[in-house]
Design a protein that fits this description.
Elements: E1 7-17, E2 20-26, E3 37-38, E4 40-43, H1 53-66, E5 70-83, E6 87-98, E7 113-119, H2 121-126, H3 132-145
Parallel strand pairs: 1-6
Antiparallel strand pairs: 1-2, 1-4, 2-3, 2-7, 5-6
Length: about 150
């Protein structure tokens, strides 16, 4: 038996446009972080294209969940968490911009998302449904954008 856990690789998009971030409220039936605010994202699948695996997964997840095209994904940081006591996740956060001329974001994955909204960093920080890891991701994205 392998002493090391197998990891789920998850990617998240911090999508920025006109001073606000695209934030979703996760569906109440979700097994992880149900009802909480989150970035758009999801798991890397085995069928991803061989090159730029993370970026392709990020673009696919954004399109599947909210139906928009993103620009210029930039790696920000990664973290690790577990859920359901036996699922080990490496989470990778990218900052990216909303491609102008796109359709407005819509909920395409009604099983996973209850709400979409554009929020400022301040609104996210003051929202009781915003977990600390979301606040950390937004802060790190802003720091990177400002060159801090």
């Amino acid at each position: 038996m392998n002493a090391y856990p197998m990891f789920i690789i998850n990617v998240e998009a911090a999508i920025y446009n006109s001073g606000k971030w695209l934030i979703i409220r996760r569906g109440e039936q979700e097994s992880h972080a149900a009802g909480l605010l989150s970035l758009v994202g999801g798991k890397v699948e085995h069928s991803e294209i061989e090159l730029d695996v993370l970026e392709n997964a990020l673009e696919r997840e954004v399109m599947e969940e909210v139906g928009i095209v993103i620009n210029n994904p930039i790696y920000i940081y990664s973290n690790y968490f577990t859920f359901d006591s036996d699922k080990h996740v490496v989470n990778i956060v990218f900052a990216c911009s909303y491609q102008e001329g796109n359709e407005m974001p819509i909920i395409k994955s009604k099983e996973e998302i209850d709400e979409i909204k554009w929020m400022s960093s301040e609104e996210i920080n003051q929202n009781s449904n915003a977990p600390n890891y979301l606040k950390e991701s937004i802060q790190r994205c802003e720091n990177r954008m400002l060159g801090i």
